[in-house]
Amino acid sequence: MTIDDTKKIRLVMYLRTAGISDTRVLSAMERVPRDVFVPPTFRDQAWEDTALPIGLGQTISQPLVVATMTQALKIGEKDKILEIGTGCGYQAAILARLCRRVYTIERHKPLLDVALRHLDDLKIRNVTAICADGMKGWPDQAPFDRIIVTAAAREKPPQALIDQLDIGGILVIPVGENGAQVLRLYKKESRDTFAIRDLMPVRFVPLLPDVAKPGDYAEKDLVDLAG
Ligand code: SAH
Description:
By secondary structure, the protein is of the alpha/beta class. It has one domain (3-226): 3-Layer(aba) Sandwich (Rossmann fold). The chain contains 8 helices and 9 strands. It has helices at residues 3-17, 23-31, 34-37, 63-72, 90-96, 109-121, 159-164, 219-226; strands at residues 52-55, 58-60, 80-84, 101-106, 127-131, 144-149, 165-175, 181-190, 193-202. The protein has a 7-stranded mixed beta sheet with strand order 5-4-3-6-7-8-9. A two-stranded antiparallel ribbon has the order 1-2. The longest helix has 15 residues, at 3-17. The radius of gyration is 17 Å and the shape is globular.
């Protein structure tokens, strides 16, 4: 057994004790190699329960948060899922093991390119991605059975996402100001009624409008990503 295998088993055991009981979710967390999605400088921490930088000021979420969001979605094998905030592609890879197809949107093109490379290397074929403003959702592909937002909204989910969620569908999103966010679950019970439940306190980067422009990056940021 390698050191990574030992660390991986320890993480999965920890997720169990922290309330992750869905065996499909635990198995996805064990099988998707988080080290592949983490930049080389942080690879030794890939199997720890911590968020890590992925470039351009963004982060890969903490494993317990990824597992909690995934478990809360109660994903079915035939589900069509929309993810806002592809980042490094790790959460998309976890979802891809559990559902029919993942549609994922990222506003930073350079991050999306890296994410797509990782997903391709792992031969994950049921993820479709675009660089766009996820606050508008993906109208051409709507409705979705599940929606997951991995960046924090200030007060509530963007209306477009609410509209693009199928009746009976579940949306999970961090909500709140910096430092005081909560992970919130919306179950769409009819066209305009929801059951709402708070899951846990979290810290996410903010959900921002519009696609990031090339001028938003320093040359050095892009070089770091390429490495
Ligand atoms: N799910 C990711 C976590 C990414 S962090 C992973 O597994 O690595 C959140 C991401 O949301 C960032 O990459 C950020 O650029 C992106 N983001 C923020 N606002 C967005 C928007 N309006 N549309 C699309 N992506 C957005």
